[in-house]
Every structure is written in C-alpha cells, then in structure tokens.
C-alpha cells in the first residue's frame, strides 16, 4: 500500500521536522564560528537562495510528479540516475550514524541536567570527563559505555517513532516541531541578557567582507544549507512522493526552507551571546574563547543553563529534551526515506528494514563512542557534507537541467502552487548552482590532495573519508543493478 500523509499540515511539519534538527542549533553555530561569525551569514544566505530553495522545489516536484522514493523518482528522469538516488540515501545513512551519537550525548546531558553535573568548566567537563578524549583518531581507546547507552536509546526512540510509517510520523511531528521552538526562544532571551552578550552578537552579525574571498567559507555555507534543509539526502523527494496529487509544491518549499534558516539564525543568538559572555569572563576575544568544533553547543548551552536566574534544572531538562525532539524527526526522516525506497524496489517488510537500519547504523556508530570518537565524527561529517551532499546536489541539477526538460519540472511545480516561480529557477538549476558548487567542490579536492583534512593523519582521513565515499558508490551501483521484485 502506498504511503500517504493525513493532511497538508502533516507533510509540512514532517518536512520541517526533517529539516530542523541538530543542524540548526548544533552544527550551524560551530560552522559559523569556524568561518568567522558574521563572515558566514552572507554566503549562507546566498547559498539558501541559489541552492537551498531551488533544490527544495526540485526535490518536491520530482518526488511529487513521479510519486516514488528518491532512487526510482530520479531513475524516472533518466534510468542511470537511480544510482544517484541510492547514493544520496547512503550519504544520509553515513550522516545518521554520527547524528544519533550526538543525540546520545544529549541523552547523557539530559541526565546531567538534574544536578547540573557539568559545573563551571563546561569545556573541560565535555572533553575530559565526558568524552575522555584521546590524543588522535588512531588512538582509538575504549567505548564509553554511557555514550553507547545514549546511542542505544536514540535508536530505540527512532524506530518506535516510525513504527507505522507516515501515519505515525504525521502525529509525532506536531510535538517535535512546536515544543523546540518555544524552548529555543527562552534560551535566546536568557543568552542575550548575559553580561558581554553584545560582544558575541557583534561577532555574529558583523559581516566580514575579506572572508568572502575565502572559498572555504562558501563551501561550508553551501554544505551547511544542504545539511540543514535535508537536501541531497533523498528524503525530501521521498516525503513529497507521499503527498496527494493536488498538494502545493512551491509554497511548501519556501515555507520549509525559510523556517529552517530562520531557526538556525535565531539559535545563533543564544550561542553567540554566550560566547560574548565567555569573552567578558575571560578577557579573551570572542573568536578565541572556545575551541571550536562539534562540541560547541555542548559548551555554550550548559553555560546558559547554569546561569539562569531560577529553574536551571527544569530548563536544563527541557533543553536537552528539545535537542532530542529536534533531532529525532530528522533522523527518522532518513530511515523512513530509506525504508520506503527499499520497500518499493525489493518488496521488503517495513519492520525488517527499520530494525535492520537501526542495528547497522547503531553498530557503526559505536566508533564515535570511543575516546577517539569526536575525531572520527569530525572527519566523517566533513566528508559526508562536502563530498557527499554537494555531489548529489550538483548531479541532481545536472539530471534535471541537462538530461531532462527542466521547464517541464518548473511548470509542473507551478501548476500545483498558488505562487509560481520564474525562469530564475531554471537558471539556478541549469547553470548557477552546478557551476558554483562544482568549482567549490573541485577546489576542495585539490586542497585535500595537498593536505589532509583538519591536520589529521592521512590514514584517518582515508578510513573516515575517502573509503566511506568509495564504499557508498559501490553499494549504490549494486542496489541499482539488483533486480526489482514485483
Ligand atoms: N536537516 C537535519 C538537521 O539539520 C540533518 C539531517 C537530516 C540529519 C536527515 C540526519 C538525517 O539536523
């Protein structure tokens, strides 16, 4: 039986739920901080307008028109593009393996909230007591059992949430979208009333035109937009395929993309205000107060929680529940999309696919629960986003812009919508986005040939980066070749 959403609201919330996630309040702040704060916002906005929204329209239109999951929908554009659909889902799978671990951290922090266990030195607590971080990725060290337990709980929660497919999802998302928004606003207000907050906000909001010359800032802006909107994962295509025939495409694409970007932008106020507070406390400039990277949110938010005038424990608990609810609908959107696509082609049982997915991703995820886990997380995240999602994005543009009649796709989208898009869309899909993203991608490959990512050992970069990408290509081709069951 084909899956369907109960209502338009269910679809919009599910799609927003997939988009809004840890990407907005965990990844966005640290990527932004790494790229120099205000230096990042302009490229981010440009990427949103030239790639984010146009590709969201593309994914919805293709999913809706062909009414199939990502692989078969892309395969309807031109046969071989089915491989791209599988590759997209696999990149999403790679992301889900570590994404669930970050949710596992949040489970632990939820527990810590009850006695504010992180104390005053939130940074030291995170690295030394919680992760017990080793010296380098190759010094793997033992699994940290509490983190592994968090990971287990995360996967159990994900599988439970999608037990019955789109019908359950449509209900769960009411909670997982609306509650987080309310809590986030409380944090923004508290963050902004901390001493020194203004300095942090200045760093966040002042554009830095020199940074616009640095290709890396643009690269991160594009990949963050893909990650955050869940574009290039095959998810939005598949979600749109569950829509009834008369549903709106363009409106929904704008709504979801703008809601997602706005959430990241607003969340940034809480994080950067706290960095300003740190700078006020330590006398260091905002750009140097915290070691940047995937741990940023786990340093800044606990600080805010501790400094709340009252009810720290309650807000701490609410906050980490919020992170979990934000993350869960992103994570399960991927399982849903993968499952729907596999079921469509091979007629497998939903329950088997969901559970199989959770087990495989959970076991792979154990690597990030070791003492070297943060390093691996960083390498895999970098490769999945900058080499995985961006490639999918470019190839989707090429598929529609060059191997299919892109005007037909635009007209299809417009015929379904109150509000229509013009030829600028064709221009973005056919020329602008593939060329710009393609150049960023090639420059980045050249950079990686010159030096390993993040100063890690080449072996670590190979194992966590190139090897994963190669493996995904092989599996994608295999899934394409394997005969469909009817
Ligand atoms: N868009 C999600 C976010 O911003 C990213 C994501 C999507 C992660 C799907 C996993 C699966 O958090």
List its traits:
mainly alpha, Amino acid/polyamine transporter I, 486 residues, Transporter, transmembrane, Na/ntran_symport, 76% helix, membrane, globular, binds phenylalanine, single chain
Structural commentary:
It is a single chain. Helix 8 packs parallel to helix 12. The longest helix is centred in the C-terminal third of the chain and has 35 residues, at 312-346. 56% of the residues are buried. With 486 residues, this protein is mainly α. It has helices at residues 8-19, 22-34, 38-66, 70-77, 82-113, 122-131, 145-161, 166-192, 197-205, 215-229, 235-241, 250-282, 296-307, 312-346, 350-365, 373-403, 406-415, 423-450, 458-481. Helices cover 76% and strands 0% of the residues. The protein has a single domain (8-481), classed as Amino acid/polyamine transporter I (Up-down Bundle), CATH 1.20.1740. The mean pLDDT is 90. It is built from 19 helices and no strands. The chain is globular. The protein binds phenylalanine. Keywords: Membrane, Transmembrane, Transmembrane helix, Transport. The chain crosses the membrane at residues 9-28, 40-62, 83-107, 143-163, 172-198, 218-242, 254-278, 298-324, 351-370, 382-404, 424-442, 462-480. One of its GO terms (biological process) is sodium ion transmembrane transport. InterPro entries: Na/ntran_symport, SNS_sf. Its main location: membrane.
